[in-house]
Write a structure and sequence with these properties.
It is a single chain. By secondary structure, the chain is of the alpha/beta class. The protein folds into two domains: 7-117 and 190-301, Rossmann fold, CATH 3.40.50; 128-186, Histone, subunit A, CATH 1.10.20. Helices cover 50% and strands 8% of the residues. It has helices spanning 23-33, 59-65, 81-97, 109-116, 128-141, 143-153, 155-160, 166-179, 183-186, 204-220, 223-230, 254-277, 290-301, and strands spanning 13-16, 36-40, 101-105, 196-201, 283-286. Helix 6 crosses helix 8.
């Protein structure tokens, strides 16, 4: 018999943490205990056809738990954060209406941000000419070039704005040029909130080993074949870690490509941790310590 949370206590449970920290397994654990609905918070698992490199769980598991916000757009679609927020919020509302506990699980900080806080630049100045210039740079030199520029000008902003979120990269650069201030200093002040959010982590060496093993598993599951099947690096979806590294694949440098994926993934995990550590309301849990995480969640739900 699953636990039914009283309707007046129903609110989303956010499960976060760096890549390879076991977030999905804990979400399934919660789903076995509660009448609930799992909603993915992953900016790459939204794409149909990217399965191995995005570490999607087998379809039979996702179908068993009726996971939402996975496999929702084609590879060539530029899915925005605003679209994610709109669609995910609808899923949350449906879940609560049906008496189910929404479980939001993933590692994409910007997607979490869109659900936790309003996505707005408020009264920050605008200039169509400046914006057009950055959009032209984007067209001519690519989003990685602009992202590197953002990283140098405002490292905090670069931890918040996703590499593939071209609109926000351009907008952040526009704001900084017009105000002579960092985007992170100009963006809207966040309201005081206290959501139910747990995040998993462990000591660095152990996390890195988990990441390395995960990449090795991806290779054994056919990541190279998946990349060859898509074979279009112009898609934003293919600029994700685990795919973009193969743009330099020559046929005889696979070992170097795999090492690059591992390094990029470890760096990404650092950025994820930086992101989630900025939230004062996160309850941090050692990887695998479900008892601690569940105890915290039950206390917050008052059950």
């Amino acid at each position: 018999m699953k636990i039914v949370v009283p309707s007046q206590n129903l609110e989303p449970i956010f499960v976060a943490g760096p890549t390879a920290s076991g977030k999905s397994d804990f979400a399934y654990y919660l789903a076995d205990l509660f009448e609930s609905q799992i909603i993915s918070c992953d900016s790459m698992q939204i794409y149909k056809g990217l399965d191995v490199g995005t570490a999607k769980d087998p379809k039979e598991i996702r179908d068993k738990y009726n996971v939402k916000m996975v496999d929702i757009v084609p590879l060539d679609y530029d899915y925005s954060v605003a679209e994610y927020a709109e669609n995910a919020k609808k899923e949350i509302e449906i879940a609560i209406k049906n008496g189910k506990l929404p479980i939001i699980v993933g590692g994409t900080g910007l997607y979490f941000e869109s659900l936790l806080y309003p996505m707005s630049f408020g009264e920050a100045p605008k200039d169509a000419t400046v914006r057009a210039r950055y959009e032209q740079e984007l067209k001519e030199k690519g989003n990685e070039y602009l992202y590197d520029k953002l990283l140098k000008m405002d490292p905090e902003a670069a931890t918040v704005i996703h590499l593939a979120d071209n609109k926000r990269i351009v907008r952040a650069l526009e704001i900084m040029e017009l105000t002579n201030k960092k985007w992170s200093e100009v963006k809207d002040k966040k309201p005081e909130i206290n959501p139910i959010m747990v995040a998993f982590n462990t000591e660095r060496a152990s996390l890195y080993e988990r990441i390395n093993q995960r990449v090795d598993k991806m290779m054994s599951l056919g990541l190279l074949n998946e990349v060859k099947k898509v074979n279009n690096f112009t898609y934003n979806s293919m600029k994700a870690i685990g795919y973009r590294e193969f743009i330099d694949y020559t046929g005889d440098n696979l070992e170097q490509i795999v090492d690059k994926i591992k390094q990029d993934t470890r760096n990404y995990a650092k950025r994820q941790l930086t992101w989630f550590r900025k939230y004062p309301f996160v309850h941090w849990v050692e990887i695998g310590d479900y008892e601690d995480a569940l105890s915290y969640i039950r206390s917050r739900l008052k059950i």
